[in-house]
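U., I forgot to send this yesterday:
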Amino acid sequence: MLDLQDLDLQLDQVAHKRKSLPEHQALTELLAEKSVVDRELVTADTEVDDLQREQKKADSDVEQVRQRRARNQQRIDSGQISSPKDLENLQHEIGSLERRISDLEDAELEVMEKLEAAEVVQAGLRGRAEAFAGKQSELEGSRDSQLKELDEQRAGIAEQRAGVVGELPEALVTQYQRLREHNGGIGAAPLVGKRCMGCRMELAPSDLSAIKAAAPDAVLRCEECGRILVRTSESAV
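Result:
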C-alpha cells in the first residue's frame, strides 16, 4: 500500500512539473507581446502598401504632365505653330504645366518621405516579429523536449503502479483512491513510532493498543485523519 502511495506521489510530482515548466509562462508572455507586434506589423504593412500605391499614382501624374509639356514644347520647337495667338496660348500652357509639375513633384517628394519613414517602422516591427518567432520556436522546442521526458517518466511509473495495484484487493484500492482524493493526495501513511505520518498526529494509547491487537492483514485507519494506516518496522506497536 505504501508502494502505491509513493508511486502516486511520484505521478503527482510529474504532473506538477508538466504544468509548472517555466517555458509555459515564458511562452504565454512571449505570445502576448508577439500578438501586439503582429497587429502593429499588419497596420504598418497596410500603411506601406497604401503609400506605395500613392507614390505610383504621384509618379504617374508627374509623368503625364511632363509628357504633355514635352509635346507642347516639341510643337513650338518644330515651328508648326504659325499663329502668334496660338503660340502665346501654348507657351502659357507650358508655364502652367511647369507649375503643375512643381506642385506634383512636391507632393511626390512628401509621399516618398512618408513611405521611407513607414518602411523603417515596418522593418523594425518585422525584425521584432522574426525575433519573437525564433524565441517562440526555441521555447517550444525546450518545452516539448521536457514534456517528452516527463511523459516517459509518467509511463514508467504508471506501469509500476499497475503492477502494484494488481497485487492489492480491488476494494482496498478503491477505498485508498477515495481517501486520497479527500486528503490532499495522501490516502495511506505509515505509522512511525506512535505518529501517523499522514496527519503527523500522535495516536492515543488506546488506538495503539487496538492496532497492536489487529490481525496482520487488517486494514487500519488513523482515528485522527481517516487515512489508511500501515504498520512498519518503525511502528511502536
